[in-house]
Write a structure and sequence with these properties.
binds copper (II) ion, mainly beta, four-stranded mixed sheet, Immunoglobulin-like, five-stranded mixed sheet
């Protein structure tokens, strides 16, 4: 059983931060558990990649701080699950990580 949903895209390159919708491309990125995940800021303004649970009673699993234009942020990897995140500077920017267990990789031959 996986966490994929329609429209989600398995990625093999950095998630791009853009200044136009959906702001994080792909908006729903599918990655393997434990594999590093990278974002690149393709805009001329700083952005952040902050787990939506930050600032709540739940664990804050990742928070990039400001990522300058042209720079990247790399997360070492996450356990299987679905993680939504946003830009702390521009709340309109939001994306989702769908982290899948490689043991359930039938849906993504590679
Ligand atoms: Cu932003």
């Amino acid at each position: 059983m996986g966490y994929s949903s329609v429209g989600a895209e398995f990625i093999n390159q950095p998630i791009r931060m853009e200044h136009f919708p959906p702001y994080y491309y792909p908006h729903e990125a599918v990655v393997w558990a434990g594999v590093p995940i990278q974002w690149i800021n393709a805009t001329a303004s700083p952005h952040t990649v902050q787990h939506d649970d930050c600032g709540t009673e739940k664990p804050c699993l990742f928070d990039s701080g400001k990522v300058a234009p042209g720079k990247t942020y790399t997360l070492p990897g996450l356990p299987p699950g679905r993680y939504s995140y946003h830009c702390q500077i521009h709340p309109i920017m939001g994306g989702t990580l769908i982290v899948e267990d490689p043991k359930g990789r039938a849906a993504h031959p590679q």
